Amino acid sequence: MKCGDPFDALLNHQKPQRVPLYHFIFGFCARNVGYPVASIYNDPLKSFNAQLLTFEQYGIDGGPDFGYASYGGWEFGGEIEFPSSEWQQAPSHGKFVVNSEEDLLQLRLPDVRKAGMLPLAMEFSRLQDKSGTPISVVLGGNFTIAGNICPVGTLCRWMIKRSEAAHRLLRLATDHIVEVVRLWTETFGAERVIPNIWEPLAANDIISAKHFEGFVFPYLREASEEMLAMGVKHIHYHICGEQNLNLPFWAQLPMGDPGLVSFGHQVDLHTAIRYFGDRCIIIGNLDPAVIQNGASQQVYELCRQCIEKAKHAARGFMLMSGCEVPPMAPPYNVYMMKKAIDEFGWYN
Amino acid sequence: MPSNERRKQILKGLYDGVVAFDEDSVVEFSKAAIGEGVDAYDALMKGLAVGMEKVGELYASREYFVPELLLCADALYAGLDILRPHVKGGGSEESGKKIVLGVVEGDVHDIGKNLVKVMFDAAGWEVYDLGNDVPLDRFVEEQQKTNADVVGISALMTTSMLAMPRVTKMIKTRNPNVAVMLGGAPITREIATSYGADGYADNAGEAVEEAGKMVQMIQKGETAHN
């Protein structure tokens, strides 16, 4: 980590000189240095270097990450497809390992040293270790992992009609999260590891707050408590998409001191601060569609609004795209984030 | 022929079964409709379809979410399987309308598209579902093959959405009289218009109404751009 890194300052309860610019930028980095988009997900060295170089160019703080939203399917025995065509952005499901309750009965926890992308993620974390950047491990939340092991429609039906099947799947997903984080903490030391948990499938575009309360929250809380009991100091939860109805539950989740919590543009930053501002660093929440399709002045204005809304959050604020920066976003639009921080992000 | 009261009871049973995602009940009332001489088309449109319309409203008002909607759809299809073979002809306003649906190339996220399909099926449209990760040419081919009135295209990813203006142009170049409707998380009406589309639906519940309006506009020689 760079000396005086504002991200480091926030983690250590200090006020940085300016709002940090946080990363949610993968395929763009690969394209930026001339690599295929897939390399950001399946080639740890290229991924690490592409991100570091792009972070330097665009003034992004913190360190690179390695992961994707379809996490879980490959690790439990399904198939994943890496992006290969002009229109593909990130890995997607090839084949689900669970399509029926019979499949589910056969499902076992995978060996976290060998399963799916985890050996690649471990290789990536060794690069993080060597370079002194934060050591992260990117995972889906329990619901997202479950919805990547079987089709999310099947999971949805089970929640109502076969709740014991849904709970069995969510139990496995939760135990898996804990096992992965345990491997990382044993390898690198708990205080250095920041689990980065993405939970897009639990959005209210898909499930209700009632189902979140019954099928998501108890498992997230359990996983959080176990991670913190291992000695993890900070957990980063990415509350992806439209999750306003779920916020009262998310707000009860232990995330460390400080926790890190990032949002899509669907959650207003004032609302985020109200729920989490006293104990978490607030991160977000530019609309990536605007970064891709908007005029540069529009992106700049959006950044200004985010910064001015949230820069005085009690535990700090980091500007970030609310979901992945689109790989084909105009580079000048991406630069607008740094330009806006330079203009509006300084403290005193 | 059943009495008027019994006919109403069957139609209400179909409606309630769909709304309460009670597949067994829908099957029971669908069989009763056929067995007791209720017109199958009436049972479909005034029972199942009206039920699904209510489900769309419950979804739009956030009383129902995807799990409930999927189970309502299962109940709907259980009824359609029984009633459709007995439908003798059209007669409704929607009858004869056709839509091609698919998730654009590069994108496998199809929950939204599947929900849209349910609503069009329920409204009596002929639906040609191309699935997900659909090559752009396939939309053009399928529209020409089926002479569909509307092509509905969805995307969840910001990268795959970039294929939408291209495929819209391809479809319109081949057939300017077909209406193109876009949807999906990153899409807004403004973006859909800028991509050359004729319409946009924010959710599955709105899609059928939007498609109906688009077809009327096209028939009157209007487009979203004039």
- Bin the helical content of chain B: 55-70%
Number of separate strands of chain B: 5
Determine Rg of chain A (CA atoms, Å).
19 Å
**What's the number of structural domains of chain B?**
2
Biggest β-sheet of chain A, characterized?
A: 6 strands, parallel
Q: N- to C-terminal separation of chain A?
A: 24 Å
CATH topology (fold) name of the largest domain in chain B? Rossmann fold
Strand content of chain A: 5-15%
Distance separating the two termini of chain B: 51 Å
* Elements of chain A, N to C (H/E): HHHHEEHHEHHHEHEHEHEHHEH
Identify the CATH class of the largest domain in chain B: Alpha Beta
Quick one: which chains have the greatest interface?
A: A-B, 35 and 28 residues
CATH evolutionary superfamily of the largest domain in chain B? Cobalamin-binding domain
Report the sheet with the most strands of chain B, covering strand number, pairing sense and barrel closure: 5 strands, parallel
What does the average pLDDT of chain B come to? 91
Structural class by SSE content of chain B:
alpha/beta
Structure description:
- The complex is a heterodimer of chains A (348) and B (226).
- By secondary structure, chain A is of the alpha/beta class.
- Chain A is built from 15 helices and 8 strands.
- In chain A, helix 11 links the parallel strand 5 and strand 6.
- Chain A is globular.
- By secondary structure, chain B is an alpha/beta fold.
- Chain B has 2 domains: 83 residues, Methyltransferase, Methionine Synthase (B12-binding Domains), Chain A, domain 1 (Orthogonal Bundle), CATH 1.10.1240; 122 residues, Cobalamin-binding domain (Rossmann fold, 3-Layer(aba) Sandwich), CATH 3.40.50.
- Helices cover 56% and strands 10% of the residues of chain B.
- A 5-stranded parallel β-sheet of chain B has the order 2-1-3-4-5, with helices on both faces.
- In chain B, helix 8 links the parallel strand 4 and strand 5.
- The longest helix of chain B is centred in the N-terminal third of the chain and has 21 residues.
- At the A-B interface, helix 8 and helix 13 of A face helix 4 of B.
